[in-house]
Amino acid sequence: MSFEEKSTWVSSAATVLVSALYYNFILARLRVTPAAEIAYQWPMILAIGSMIGMTIAGTILMSIGTAVSSEITGSGSVNEIDRTDERDKSINRRGELAGYYVSCVGMLGVLALAMLRYDQFWIANALYLTFVSGGLVSSGVKLAAYRWGL
Amino acid sequence: MAKKMRVSNCIRSLRFAAGEMTQAELADRVNVTRQTIIAIEQGRYSPSLEMAFRIARVFGVPLDEAFQYQDEE
Question: Engineering a disulfide at B45: which of A18, A26, A135, B39 sits with its beta carbon 3.0 to 4.6 angstroms away?
């Protein structure tokens, strides 16, 4: 598995884990509190921060783990660990494009919510959902391309 | 199911003919990842013209000896 593919797995795992925890928290509040009264701001900031932090920390740990295991097993050169080539770039481009289309559709939904004067809670959470789903679709397309080819 | 590419190659046999060169060694010489060499050999990735030339040059063969383009049926 190349460095880029492993990084994609790390960011996908961080996104799924953090957004599941965030939506679990928000949906539990939504059952007992009106949407406009839910203090979603800090949990959302924390979720976005954790997602970025976990992705960075996971990538660093993954790099160290790969370097150590390749040193122990003698498979692959240390120079190859973070090597990125044209295939990685093509796969990344395809994934980002798919994520962009999903984000565009999500943005239209957010725009509709704003035009219909929905509460900030719904607008912010629809934006967060757009952010998460765009990222996940992008990662899914990349992982599929790594597995089955471009 | 893996997509079938119309560009086929005989890199595997060229590697064996070149003193059983490993995929990692070829990847180092072409400056790509070993996974890319594996993907090309398995027909899951068609390299750019530049990469194809670099691979052919490693084995000292013309491009069309390393890569073949199959006609559409």
Answer: B39
Residues of chain B contacting A87 with CB distance shorter than 8 Å: 32-33, 35-36, 39, 45, 47
pLDDT of residue B4: 61
Q: Going by C-beta distance under 8 Å and a sequence separation of 6 or more, which residues neighbour residue B49?
A: none
Quick one: pLDDT band at residue A77, thresholds 50, 70, 90?
A: low
Nearest to B35 by CA among B49, B24, B21, B19: B24
pLDDT digits 0-9 by tens, B23-72: 999 999 999 999 999 999 998 899 999 999 999 999 999 999 999 987 66
pLDDT at res. A2: 80
Non-local CB neighbours of A27 within 8 Å, separated by 6+ positions: none
CA distance B18 to A132: 48
Q: Cβ distance A84 to A39 under 8 Å?
A: no
Q: What residue type is assigned to position B36 of the chain?
A: T
Q: Where are the domains of chain A?
A: 3-148
Contact A149 B27 (CB under 8 A): no
A101 in helix, strand or coil? helix
**Which of A70, A78, A87, A94 is the best substitution to test chain B (most B C-beta atoms within 10 A)?**
A87
Question: Which residues from chain B sit within 8 angstroms of residue A79, using beta carbons?
Answer: 28
Q: Quick one: CA dihedral A125, A131, A133, A134, positive or negative?
A: positive
